Amino acid sequence: MKKRAFALITALCMTLTCFASAETVKHERVYAVTNAAGDALTIIDNVRLENGDALTEIDDRTLLTALENVGGTEKFTQSGETVTWKADGNSIIYQGTSDKALNVTPVVRMTLDGKEVTAADVKNASGELAMTVSYRAESPFLAVTVMPLTDDVTSVTVDNGAVLTDGAHSFLMGFGVPGADADLELPDSFTMTAHVDHADLNWMMTIATAQPVKVLTDVLSDHAADARTLVSDLTAGLNALADGSDIPESNEDIHELLTALNTLFDGAAQLKDGSITLLDGVKTLKDGLDTLSSNSSALNDGAAQLFAAVLDTANTQLAAAGLDALSIEVPTLTVSNYAAVLDDLIAQLDPAVIDKTIEDLAKAQVREAVMAQEDKVREAVTEVVRGQVRDAVQAQEETIRAAVTDAVKEQVRQAVAAQEDTIRAAVTQAVQVQVQDAVQAQEDTIRAGVTQAVQAQVLEGVLAQAGLNMTAQQYQDAVAAGQVPDAQQKQISATVDQMMVSDDIKAKIEAAVTEQKNQLVAQNMASGDIKAKIESAVTEQENQLIAQNMASGDIKAKIESAVAEQEDKLVEENFASADVQAKLEAAVTEQIDKLVEENYASADVQNTVAEKKATIAAAVDSLKRLKEQLASVETFVNGLKAYTDGVAQAGNGVSQLYDGANTLSGGMTELSDGLAELKAKLTEEGLDLLSGDVQKALDLFDNLESQMANVPSFDLVADGMAHDMLLIIRTDLQK
Predict the structure, then answer these.
(1) What's the rounded Cα separation, in Å, for the pair 202 and 122?
(2) Backbone angles phi, psi at 173, to 5 degrees
(3) Mean predicted lDDT score pLDDT of the chain
(4) Quick check: 90 and 56 in contact, CB under 8 A?
(5) In this structure, what are the phi and psi dihedrals at residue 185, rounded to the nearest 5 degrees?
(6) Where does 150-235 show beta strands of DSSP type E?
(7) Cβ contact 141:209 at 8 Å
């Protein structure tokens, strides 16, 4: 069961992790064990320094302790927080421990029949269990938790999660997004309820990463910027519309629409004022109608642009709906065809028609998935058939053995001679280790000499700063001669002592010691004595190998190897025969068909089919609503055109309105008041919306983007080095 859970965890890791594109990247995989209360029991940080530029050295920063290279033999030096790896072009894999708090901590609380309990209590009782897993985090993370469920856990429900099954075993999966702004209303916990009967709830695994949240903010960043610009343009336009000032031209479409509306409101006011008197009212009416008529084109163009924008949005949504996967062609929606196209799509998505298509597609996908594993299936079947062939060949072993015995004897000497380079390399390596050990034994003497030389350099630098232009030896002679005052001697000694304990001087001493040791090793390895020692050891090793191989036991081993080789050759020849290959293909086909049937009948596939059917049903409802929305917009556009056409006609027949001027005056007053009320409502509610809910949404995104400006790390990260981090936390529920 644990292996299956770890397989699922591994899949989650592959899904959630996004690797950085920089040349040098610090990949952190933090493995932790915690208890149910969230207390860390152990923490190990596995770090991979990706060396994309094949650097000879990589400078890293860390607070980890007990550092260990677990991916190679590369060495490192450390000074404070800085670790320098001798990479030699290789990537570095190391690990260390830490007592630092985890970026994300799962905390488990359980109640049984309403009473708070522990996992140990649950193991010894029965009842209705409620288990809540809460995630603690300072910044936004995506956390996914998996826990195996035994047969003693039934009637399981979970919010913010699901129950997964592979047919034989079940797992609880829950998730949360802790650390995000509360106004985003993202869950930071999940709760499972179930009936338990002495259930052994032992452990759960949590995967946590900030990378998906970072990717989301990066994707939405440009859209948020566009939204801010649009909000700014709309706010400026509505403010100008409300107070009667010039409408800003920062956005052509918004300027054109608001200008046309302003003209409409102004024209209505003119109509009201002009209808006060009979004769003047007729003239004012005509002027107002002329003004409206002159703006008819702008009003109609603005409305047409509005309809076009709605159609563009609808086409984008349809393109992203995935209907092409059902072999359904989606034509581009236009003003003239949208109703017919949507009716056709709704008809094609009739459950009576589409359910079989979904089932056929699911069966095809299952077969495709199984066929992707054909190599593995073939490998397993091949192993069985090959074993049968090998049994038949091994029945001829004695005949084969008699045929290969004589040929082995000559090969013994040739084999030993072919190993000379390998022997020499091994002997050289062993001698080098001895030389290194001998040099290492002199480290204290080397260090003393280096320290003395460095101290002399430091002393001469201090003397120069003090205006005493003399060497260290000259200074010592002057001191011995009593030519240097005691106070000055003490000051110089204190300065030298202070500099000798500095990190720079210590590093300089260490570098010089290392350099001298390396030089000594190289000198010794190049000496005649060492070379002679190596040659003697090589000769001795070759003679020993020849003696060993010529012994009867070695000859028998050689014979056994040759017999095995001959048997393998016969197995391959027999395996390639037409009869055996036909048997193999029949077995592979049978196994694939069996896997297809089993996988299609699985709960996961059947649930997916049901979900797709439900999605199609929801899509039909969405298409119906979309048709209604487009019809409403079309009605608005057509109504506006009819209105502007009526304005032109009214201007031509203005003289006929003279006799009804008093009635017109009252009607124009009502129209003007109504349009004035519409203008006030449009600007007030529009500004309230832009400064309220819209601005709140943008502020929430700004806060989230600010939080994700730097993706959190567990350990320190060197300046200029990219990084990613994944937390893998095992919670032992009974500790």
Answers:
(1) 10
(2) -125, 125
(3) 78
(4) no
(5) 55, 40
(6) 153-158, 161-165, 170-176, 189-197, 203-209
(7) yes
Q: Rounded to a whole number, what is the distance in angstroms from the first to the last CA of the chain? A: 20
The number of beta carbons lying within 10 Å of the beta carbon of residue 416 is 20
The Cα 403–Cα 492 span in angstroms is 89
Copy the structure tokens of residue 271: 């109509």
Report the predicted TM-score, pTM, of the whole model to 2 decimal places: 0.41
649-683 b/e (C-beta count within 10 Å ≥ 16 → b): ebbeeeeebeeebeebbeebbebbeebeeebeebb
Q: Are 485 and 492 in contact (CB under 8 A)?
A: no
pLDDT value of residue 400: 85
If pLDDT is split at 50, 70 and 90, which confidence band does 117 have?
Answer: very high
CA 428/CA 441 separation, integer angstroms: 20
b/e map 210-235, b = 16+ CB within 10 Å: bbbbbebbeeeeeebeeeeeebebbb
Angle in degrees, 0-180, between the axes of helices 211-243 and 252-274, rounded to the nearest 10: 30
Q: What is the mean pLDDT of residues 477-483?
A: 90
CA distance 358 to 325: 10
**Whole-number pLDDT of residue 735:** 85
155 touches 170 (CB < 8 A): no
Q: What is the pLDDT, as a whole number, of residue 119? A: 94
pLDDT band at residue 65 under the 50/70/90 scheme: very high
Contact 135, 143 (CB under 8 A): yes
CA 506 → CA 224, 498, 513, distances in Å?
53, 11, 11
